[in-house]
């Protein structure tokens, strides 16, 4: 049966992402919405982007843009933007591209296929008949195609009301240090701090099933109904 799955902020955690995809038993019939923030902080941005590019030909991938991808693209434009990006985990990203272990790496080490994916393939939002997906947030009284960038990519999760469309919002960006997704019935945040001491989460929006994996090699199952509401 075709599923619509959403994965929260990956942040360079390649091994966790692969473990989660295996745990979910991702299939070519699935629609997979990745909520952005693939780069920075975690140990292997290079492999994460390679895997997402592979998945783009394996299943119906709908990759959203996150604020960390925006910062990486801006890092090519000025020295000040480059410094700001490095301060939020870009230094770890560069090391994942370094040709020799122990080198710092440079932006020139990032292959064109990755720049193309980041600049041309990523989406501002995705929607189904019942849900819509954004990296960070959305104004409840504004159509998705009119949302400003600072809301889509930078807004923190703060008990959002139901969107005017009547659809449930699924987002990332606001890391839940508890390791548990957060929901108030109108919206679900599934950034569960994969690059820290939390988990990477995958939500099946149809069934409410949640799969999780972490950097310690553990996996676990949850269900949306089990989560405490705001």
Could you describe the 3D structure shown?
With 230 residues, the protein is α/β, with parallel strands linked by helices. The protein is built from 6 helices and 11 strands. The strands form 2 sheets. Strands 3-2-1-9-10-11 form a 6-stranded mixed beta sheet. α6 links the parallel β5 (131-133) and β6. α3 (67-74) packs across α4 (79-97). The mean pLDDT is 97.
Describe this structure in a few short sentences:
It contains six helices and eleven strands. The model has no long low-confidence stretch (mean pLDDT 97). The chain is of the alpha/beta class and 230 residues long.
Salient structural properties:
230 residues, alpha/beta, 30% helix, single chain, 6 helices, six-stranded mixed beta sheet
What's the total count of β strands?
A: 11
Write the H/E string, N to C: EHEHEHHHEEHEEEEEE
Which structural class matches the secondary elements?
Answer: alpha/beta
- Largest sheet geometry: 6 strands, mixed
Which stretches are low in confidence, meaning pLDDT under 50 for 5 or more residues running? Answer: none
Output the number of helix runs. Answer: 6
Shape: globular
In angstroms, what separates the terminal alpha carbons?
32 Å
Proportion in β-strands: 15-25%
Q: Which strand order do you get reading across the main beta sheet?
A: 3-2-1-9-10-11
Name the average pLDDT.
Answer: 97
Give the proportion of residues in helices: 25-40%
Radius of gyration: 17 Å
